[in-house]
Amino acid sequence: MTRMIFKTPSANWEDCFPIGNGFLGAMVQGNPNHEILFMNEDSLYSGWEVNRLNNNSGKHIEEVRTALKEQRVNDAHQLAERYLFANSPHPRHYEPLGQVHIESLVSTDYTDYQRILDVTKGKVDMKYNRKGSYETRTCFISYPRNEMFYTIEGRNINIECYLLRRSPVSGQSESYIDELGVEDEAILLSGYNGNKTNGIDFTMGLNIHSCDGKVEYCDSRIIITDATKVTIGIVGRTSIRSNNPKEWCIEALKKNRNEDVISLLAEHISDFSELFNRSSLQLKGASEDLYLPEAINQAKNGEVILSLCQAYFNFGKYLLISSSRKGSLPANLQGIWSKEFTPPWGSRYTININIQMNYWFCEKLGLGDLHLPLFEFQKEALKNGRRVAKVMYNAEGTVLHHNTDIFGDAAPSDFYMPATIWPMGGIWLALHIFEHYKYSKNDEFLEEYFEVIQENWKFIQSYLFEFNGVLNTGPSVSPENTYIASNGERGQLCISPTMDIQIVREFLNNLLELPERYISQDSKKAAKYMLEKLPKTKINGKKMIMEWQDDYEESEPGHRHISHLFGLFPGNEITKDKTPELYVAALNTLESRLKNGGGHTGWSCAWIINFWAHLNRPKEAFENIKKLFACSTLNNLLDNHPPFQIDGNFGATNGFIELIVQDFGDKVYLLPALPQELDSGELNGFVCKSGIILNIEWKDSNISSLVAISKRNATVEFLLSGQQIIKHFEQNTQIKII
Fold this sequence. Notes:
The protein is of the alpha+beta class.
């Protein structure tokens, strides 16, 4: 069990506790006198999909390539801005559903307050003493019921409930609704985002699920008096999923009203805990209770307690279970929790690392079913991706650029040259499909999503072009960096940035590993040819990985993106055993980037923890964990870019795993980068690509117990402290290796 505990209500959104079920999310403030729940529904966007594609792109793509080949960078930029940028810079953006207010009719003082998030059960509890007697509050969002339940128990409960949908920005008084009132014993708030032809209808509904006091309905409010127990139900829906969201909310509230809240809570805990308990991390000396913000304040003073490390890991699992479930949309830049009507970066899907980072750990911790929304999204994006590939690049297959929305908007996003023209987003996302198949070996799954792989393969074949004796990508960028050419020109557009080639190489190697029934001999031959013709990852005179094909000077040597180390992680190109020169060059690259101020954002710091783990540097890895806690973590443990961005939580959760165990399929490295501070503990339920589940215990930085449970036949080489242990497994067996 891990419980995160505040001794005060939240004073702001950033201190609230997040709860969710993938579809519906809430930030819980916990104020007994005036509770505010900041609600989100994962499909509520600013409008219906828009066609932003610049139809002139395909006629001019070769002009841009020619300018880059001739190193006319400014000309290439000017052409790209005119002909490759979309006709409008932004896809649709994520919006909040609204706010639920639960206000005491008479504000009174209270003492002995605690606000508790139980991450193992997916619920928030509050308890406090008011006028000599204790009141308790419990809230959770049920996945089986797709409804939030909020229960108050006490001696004399007198509250007023109402709904708003207003801007949280100070000084703004706008409300974004079309209808608000009571109907069928529920408060219903409704609106419409879109234009005259297409849009998104949405509704939030609140009812009194159960109450032993008096209930009064007042136009758009519900008043409760003289109660000792009351449970409030909250739902949300959009026309993305239902033709009539308002009617859906009314019926859902009525249906769930027939169930006792104790049974609903038990059902919710059973559902949530089954996912959470598939794996566990226990650090020796870590407490189950973490008091906030005290633990963060300690980290800011240089002291990182084991309880914070363990809670952070468990919180990462909790957040993914709460924001990505079967049938929901993928977790976005803020998971599912966003308060603003114009959120940072649209709170969409930034896919030049951020959304991929959200899912790095899920397969390893037995949570592959939480990965499914990302696969469904890719399938839904094929339609737009095919159109953009054809019109923009004169290519077959499908493409996605660096940012997209729930509709799979595939046109370049933003008018920002360092990021906009980067057509590798879909190919990188497709690597997650390969990864899930490696873990599951589920042929039905691969058949379901093979079209995504196939369409990205078609794009690679028709998009790459030969120049200087090698196959190239371009025009493209090294995400979001700028180079300085030898003539002093600053540029972003280029041919074959290192990350592009590493991503394509990773895709082709994965393609060749598929069973023969999925890949024809012609495709195998073509993939092998392309692998031979791709540029190699280069090392410059400073013994560092080159970010571009030319050894340009970096305009920002401490840039937050370290894209040219994709091959180190999450890719598998650079390892100490296979590519020792690149391994040393990667180390030099990372040291240089950090020396110049890199890793200053939350997600970048999280990525760097994973880099250090794969460079077998435990001390440096833990220094970045400390930095993440001290500089990039909010009081409620959410990642702070700044502002809040959830990828850092997920990336750092994976980082803890990589310190303990690294899985390369046929080889598994144990304690490859274990910091001294984490010298004793256990990780149970680690899933290997080979189909082996490991329970690992270590004491004084040495493995003390290693138990393997096999789901299928496999041969695995375990490496630890200079030892090599090769084990053959038969399906459905358990072996104690150490």
